[in-house]
Amino acid sequence: MASQAQRSASSRTVPARPNTAFRQLRGRLSPGEFAAAVRRAAREIGEQVSCDARYVGRVESGEIRCPNYAYERVFRHMFPGLTLPDMGFAPRETVRGRGARTSPDSAAPLATDPDHRDTRIQNCEESDVLRRAFITGGPAAALGLTGLCPAGRTDPPVPAPAAPQGHAAPLAATVPGPRTAPGARAGATEATAVEEAVRRIRLLDDRHGADGLYHRATQPLRAAYELLDAGAQRRAIYDRLHAGAGELAISVGWLAHDSGRFDDARSHYAEALSTARVCGDAALEAHAFCNTAFLARDAGRPREAVRAAQAAQQAAKRLGSPRLRSLLALREAGGWAGLGDRTGCTQALARAERLFAAGPGERDPEWMSFYGEAELRGLTAQCWSALGERGRAAEHARRAVALQDPHFTRNIALFTTELAGNLAAHGTVDEAATAALQALTLLSRVHSARIRAMLDDTARALRPHRSCGPVGEFLDRYRTAGAPVGRQPA
């Protein structure tokens, strides 16, 4: 029979010991980013886990000494060859008994995750992201962009005429490594490198689309926030790092958005918004809300799109850029169109046109280089399409294709695909097939899950008209393309 002292000892709470091994496995990912990676890995093996940043924190703090069986399978999938003890967990057999409980009255072992009873619920990490401004950890060893290009591509990002069609070269640009002296902080060199990373990612996206870029772009994003967390030599540098890291988060979020990873995009945009709020950067806040509105529209949340666009316009009021306000009015119009509110949509479109007519200005944000009349027409086409006026939408899409700068290959593919879809819905099948053929050719160079899905819809709409010559030609080429056009990236 146990002694009184033994019984008393067994009733005390087991002290938590930080799981440093698991923290090392997380690497430079933020808790929210790592939680998203866990959920993706779970889907790959058919599991459902409600992992969020809070769960990651509980594991690393030692509160969860051993994961439940679902999480164990996911972690083993993510880190093949590692056992639970290798990951810093206690062996399951040591935590299943009475001694592993926090008290004699506990109803479940400390090892198990109390949230596992409803793993169907996907907790999102935005609340955690909005509570903190930075990714934790030491200063980045380097903000590396080596190999930041679509998978399998090896030639220059702006190909010479003789270069193979559809290829881009490795992009090499690194931020100098961290200072080894204690207390060393980032300087102008690091701030400049973060800003350059944003420009290079946007250049590659303009040329080649998001697929294949997203996972490569997350590394410089993590490094940028680590530099920010390490501090800066002067307030001006710190402000530049804030703005640069926030813009980089938006750029990486857009890559996720355009490649169909909506949950990841939402997380990155939320992190950018958090950064903007912490440093009081109205321009960054407007940009983050702008992209959030666009994402909400594409994700089927039009009311959220309207509210985010209106919040962006509020932030932009003091920035002195009519062109920015024009784009934000278009984002609002897209939300109203998704709600089927013709009045709200047309009013926002009229406001966008009026503000655009004011012309470019010195205070226009750098990231808005894509926003010219072609983009105005393309976004207007999307609004009329959502309202069911496909003929009117086709007119705007046709102008968007004609006006687009050749540099923006991805947007040419987008507007051409929009044109094909609107023509097909309007019944102009021959012209639709011709445009669809052009879009299919462009998609050999541009990798965008969003555009591919749009072309898939056009192909389905055209199938009943196969007997028409151009339609049959498009459908044959569509079917014999190297990979299914609508296939989502791995």
Automatic annotation (TrEMBL):
Bias (Low complexity) ranges: 1-12, 163-189
Which SUPFAM superfamilies would you find in this protein's record? TPR-like (SSF48452)
Residue ranges for the region (Disordered) are: 1-21, 95-118, 155-189
Spell out the InterPro entries in the cross-references: TPR-like_helical_dom_sf
The entry's protein name is: Transcriptional regulator
Source lineage: Bacteria, Bacillati, Actinomycetota, Actinomycetes, Kitasatosporales
